[in-house]
Design a protein that fits this description.
The chain is built from 6 helices and 2 strands. By secondary structure, it is mainly α. Helix 1 packs across helix 4.
Length: 155
């Protein structure tokens, strides 16, 4: 490892709900530094999504993100000229990062509706434990499970 490891920055909470996860979601949605637009999109998506499932907004967001958090992932490890996919546990911070990234990426990849509607649909389906982001989580965990034989290469 070269140089120093980067310091973990404090997660900026969002203005309206004072919540770190929503703050991360807004930052992930933001493009070209247009934070006010990202806030508007995220707030409309999470508020209408929470209304659909009749739960408080913060609880809705946390449940949706928790249902997408992966417990295991695979990392490539080169041993003796061969690359192995080694399953490793995911730290809580990375779990949250991956969950938010997958929710936003899946919403961005779809088209036909406005982004806030697509994000809302994806978060509602994640809240229910279905949808493409949850499928992505299951694929990652299944891959880690399939490569359990290489767990002894963990570093």
């Amino acid at each position: 490892m070269r140089g120093k490891r980067a310091k973990k920055r404090a997660i900026v909470k969002d203005k309206k709900y004072n919540d770190e996860v929503i703050g991360r979601l807004i930052n992930k949605v933001m493009l070209d530094g247009k934070k006010s637009l990202a806030q508007e999109l995220v707030y409309t998506a999470i508020e209408s999504g929470a209304q659909k499932v009749n739960t408080p907004v913060i609880e809705f967001v946390h449940t949706a993100v928790d249902n997408v958090r992966p417990a295991l992932e695979v990392k490539s490890r080169r041993v003796g000229g061969a690359n192995y996919q080694v399953p490793v546990p995911v730290t809580p911070r990375r779990q949250e990062t991956l969950a938010v990234r997958w929710l936003v990426d899946v919403s961005r990849s779809k088209s036909g509706k406005s982004f806030d509607k697509l994000l809302e649909e994806e978060m509602v389906s994640a809240f229910k434990g279905e949808g493409d982001a949850v499928k992505k989580k299951n694929d990652v965990e299944r891959m880690a499970e399939a490569n359990k034989a290489f767990a002894h290469f963990r570093w």
